[in-house]
TrEMBL record:
Start and end residues of each Threonine synthase N-terminal domain: 235-313
Protein name from the UniProt record: THNS1 protein
Molecular function terms from GO: pyridoxal phosphate binding
Species the sequence originates in: Cardinalis cardinalis (Northern cardinal)
Protein's gene: Thnsl1
Residues found modified as N6-(pyridoxal phosphate)lysine: 346
Lineage start: Eukaryota, Metazoa, Chordata, Craniata, Vertebrata
Record pathway: Amino-acid biosynthesis
HAMAP family associated with the record: Shikimate_kinase
InterPro entries per record: P-loop_NTPase, Ser/Thr_deHydtase_PyrdxlP-BS, Shikimate/glucono_kinase, Shikimate_kinase/TSH1, Thr_synth_N, Thr_synth_N_sf, Thr_synthase-like, TrpB-like_PALP_sf
Length: 738
């Protein structure tokens, strides 16, 4: 009989531990769980009574890798083809396939798998085993399934060189490439761990990667998070008693000490071979591989993560490439990040993050998400959370605060039109910096948050770019853009590129820098500011100075920001995780309105970053110039980046300009740039006028529909007063959850 030894059930332990812990809902994997997990592993070897099950397409090297892994672990090695199927059938696998045909072969193969049992072994599956659901469910009960993910072109080359004809599903009219592509859906369904295997990687190296991946899978203790305001040698009592995992930081958003969460051991590194293995992959496939490395399966299993990513980047994006890269002129390329439902780069995080959040939270509490936006985040977060399953909407609500007079008319119309039964917008009679600061203060007001939890059973959470789950998906499109340039033959892998990003809150820029840390050859990250150029001055001088600065309303409102929250994560990184220094700097900024970097830190910063800024006049001139010469319309934020890129690039390598929003969202400014004398104030009329230009890209597919919904729409407006904001929050909780 099959000896089944189950791991501690991760989510069950999590939810049971939390069922009586609604007062501290941020700890989704609390200390009790960590101790159970750690004690279990301390008494078992890497393998124990579980099996390591190697899965992958024919030609992936499962048999050879399995033998090496078995030797290293000194355990039995079983090849399903040779040791199970051929023994059971008393004939070769190719003969069986020839005798019974494709469909009957799969059924017979599955029956043999159902009768098979083993423990403490390394098992190499056949390439077609994963296509039989019952057989895979049976064998997976007592094993960790490791997917050897080899690029399709490499597999085809290997099979051709071996002259392998025994491929289940291969028949006249169906190509080998089609067969391999078809099977991927089954591999994706069953694996626990993915190991990327390039074309020239030796089996010995693959075996080591398998062992490393299994170790990571079985030790979630290694992947914890710390606050940017805590140092390794000076942890708070709270941090000593609780470890924070991915699930925790998604829910909690902001650390208790006011800092931002970052991975304690940094981000994972990909080898050049692993990146090259993703050159032919789709955007969704790249996202899954990258995010699997950043999210431990104890928090979100690979199969569930795949489901979430498919939901986020499937039908919700109008372009099949999701984030296409387009040649603009010379050595400049545009990364189009506006093909999501609300026409801005925020959709990449906010179509994904709500589903991550819904999966991670305990079922015993309600959650209210608080968001501050300078424009594009509002509609994106409203749309994202409104797409949750109905059961999740009942326990997750969202309140979006935005500067009432600090966003474009179309942005405001979007935020009104995207309101749903669990998501609302509130205009605040102030600027974005007030909205963002107010939310931070609310999160650190323990009296207020405790009152909401005790009185209403509701916890607060954040979906702004301070939330780690907002940053993580942005890394993907920066990496994907580089891989697309390689795929298009513009560069070879390893050649450097520069990246220029319109920057306000520093999240998008930080994501590009993280992609660089993970192995993407980015040379310089260029920060492009508008006239609110605090970041530019800081990068040039090391002085962050808000004294006497007032926010200037511009044609690029998403970067009308003076306090860049995610800059804190970057400074923590280059300061060697000196949380005390970060605390000192940001306390000084809060209390005195300025701080200055030490000379050595400024030197490090200027090795990574360069910066420039652009006036409104230059922004409009750039839009007009690009349209006149190419027929392409830039939005106002992309135009800011284009101007800065023109000034700062040295033209020795390609430069990728992040096109962060669709121009339709800023129709009045665009029409002005195109030198239209009379502009109708009705947003719908403005879009219809723009559509008459037949420009590239065409008018955004979702904006017209959203604007039509706002004809009878309304929203709340409140004063810039903390007590008023808290009153709105309490009222919403009463109306939605009670």
């Amino acid at each position: 009989m099959l000896h089944v030894f189950q791991y501690p059930p991760l989510r069950l332990i999590t939810q049971n531990c939390l069922s009586s812990m609604c007062l501290k809902p941020m700890l989704s994997r609390p200390v009790a769980f960590a101790q159970i997990w750690k004690s279990w592993f301390s008494s078992h070897s890497l393998l124990g009574k579980k099996n390591i099950i190697l899965m992958g397409p024919p030609g992936a090297g499962k048999t050879t890798t399995g033998r090496i892994v078995g030797q290293k672990l000194d355990c039995p090695v079983i090849d399903i083809d040779d040791d199970v199927l051929e023994t059971t059938w008393n004939m070769s696998v190719s003969e069986k396939l020839r005798d019974v045909g494709y469909e009957e072969f799969l059924e017979e193969e599955g029956k043999a798998l159902l009768k098979f049992s083993a423990s403490g072994s390394v098992i190499s599956l056949s390439g077609s085993n994963p296509m039989h659901a019952a057989g895979m469910q049976h064998i997976k009960k007592n094993g960790i399934v490791v997917y050897l993910d080899v690029p399709t072109t490499v597999i085809m080359s290997r099979l051709k060189s071996k002259q392998m004809e025994r491929i289940v599903g291969l028949s006249p009219g169906i190509s080998l490439k089609d067969v391999l592509q078809f099977r991927k859906q089954f591999y994706k369904r069953w694996f626990d761990i993915r190991v990327l295997c390039g074309g020239d990687v030796a089996a010995e190296v693959v075996a080591e990667k398998v062992l490393d991946a299994v170790k990571r899978y079985r030790d979630s203790e290694l992947e914890t998070f710390i606050s940017t305001r805590s140092s390794r040698s000076g942890r708070s009592t709270e941090e000593d008693s609780n470890k924070f995992y991915f699930s925790d930081v998604v829910i909690q958003g902001l650390a208790l000490d006011g800092g931002l969460f970052v991975p304690e051991r940094g981000l994972p590194k990909f080898t050049a071979e692993e990146w090259q293995g993703l050159i032919e992959a789709t955007y969704v496939e790249r996202a899954q591989v990258i995010l699997e490395r950043c999210i431990h399966p104890a928090d979100i299993p690979a199969s569930k993560l795949a489901e979430i990513i498919d939901t986020a980047y499937g039908e919700n994006f109008s372009c099949s490439k999701v984030a296409p890269i387009r040649h603009l002129a010379g050595n400049q390329f545009l990364l189009e990040l506006f093909h999501g439902p609300t026409a801005s780069f925020k959709d990449f995080a906010l179509q994904l993050m709500p589903h991550l959040f819904a999966y991670c939270i305990p079922r015993s509490c309600n959650y209210l998400i608080l968001v501050a936006t300078s424009g594009d985040t509002g509609s994106a977060v409203l749309d994202g959370f409104s797409r949750l399953h109905d059961t999740d909407k009942q326990r997750i609500a969202l309140m979006n605060f935005f500067p009432e007079d600090g966003v474009s008319p179309i942005q405001k119309s979007q935020m009104i039109g995207c309101q749903k039964e669990n998501a609302w917008s509130v205009g605040v009679k102030s600027d974005f910096d007030f909205c963002q600061t107010a939310i931070k203060q609310i999160f650190t007001n323990s009296d207020f948050t405790g009152f909401l939890t005790v009185e209403y059973g509701t916890a607060l959470a954040a979906a702004n770019s301070i939330n780690w789950a907002r940053l993580l998906p942005q890394i993907v499109y920066h990496a994907s853009a580089y891989l697309d340039l390689v795929h298009q033959g513009i560069i070879s892998f390893g050649s450097p590129v520069d990246i220029c990003i319109p920057t306000g809150n520093f999240g998008n820029m930080l994501a590009a820098f993280y992609a660089k840390m993970m192995g993407i050859p980015i040379r310089k990250c260029i920060c492009a500011s508008n006239e609110n150029n605090v970041l530019t001055e800081f990068i040039r001088t090391g002085v962050y100075d808000l004294r006497g600065r007032k926010l200037i309303s511009s044609f690029s409102p998403a970067v009308d920001i003076l306090k860049s929250s995610n800059l804190e994560r970057y400074l923590h990184l280059i300061a060697n995780e000196d949380g005390q220094l970060v605390t000192q700097l940001f306390n000084q900024l809060e209390n005195q309105g300025h701080f200055q970097l030490q000379k050595d830190l400024l030197g490090k910063l200027q090795q990574d970053l360069v910066a420039g800024w652009c006036s409104d006049e230059d922004c409009l001139a750039a839009i007009h110039s690009v349209y006149s010469t190419t027929g392409y319309i830039l939005d106002t934020h992309t135009a800011v980046a284009k101007v800065v890129a023109d000034r700062l690039q040295d033209r020795t390598c390609p430069i990728i300009i992040s096109s962060t929003a669709h121009y339709s969202k800023f129709a009045p400014a665009i029409l002005r740039a195109l030198r239209i004398a009379e502009i109708n104030q009705n947003p719908l009329s403005q879009l219809h006028l723009l559509s008459s230009y037949s420009a590239l890209p065409p008018i955004h597919w979702g904006l017209l529909e959203t604007l039509k919904k706002t004809a009878n729409g309304d929203h709340q407006v409140c004063a810039a007063d903390m007590s008023v904001l808290m009153s709105h929050i309490e009222t919403l909780i009463q109306n939605h959850f009670m």
